[in-house]
Design goal:
Number of helices: 9
Largest sheet: none
Number of strands: 0
Strand content: under 5%
Shape: globular
Radius of gyration: 19 Å
Length: 187
Amino acid sequence: MTQRRDSARQAWLRETLDQYERPLVRYAQRLTGNLETARDVVQDAFSRLCSQERADVDGHVAEWLFTVCRRRALDVRRKENRMSAMPEAFRDAAASGDPPPPVVLEREEATSQMLRVLQALPENQQEVIRLKFQGGLRYKEIAGVTGLSVGNVGFLMHTGMKAIRERLREIDGETEPGVIKMERRAR
């Protein structure tokens, strides 16, 4: 009985590691500014998960992991007293097969542009957007990770995404700063 329980726990831990390791490393890297430090932070989070009873975290393991990871990353960042963005942390893995060089260049430029726009947002908007789109978390989980209310997460998400859309339109030359064309609203 104990052996079966241990085997099931190991399988659950393996599945959890497979599912959350990469998103957690990306998230921690953004917070710490360093890939190796981020890996250490994520390793610490999984280490702590191993000492938890599954029943204590079952049903909210993503929220628990991101919260532990966030707290540890912020502790490390405070300790090292540094903060720098690492745009390459947010690039998606290359698609299978090599696209032609112009396509690669266009993607890199678009990614770079998006990251510059994202980095111009207030830190709290950046964090909720990253947790949503890079971490794959729901608003309730983001609220649990950040300590914000679900309503505040929704507001920050809405405000941040609106600012990103407007800034990208400005960059593309579609409109003047702060002005949204009427044709766009009709959609």
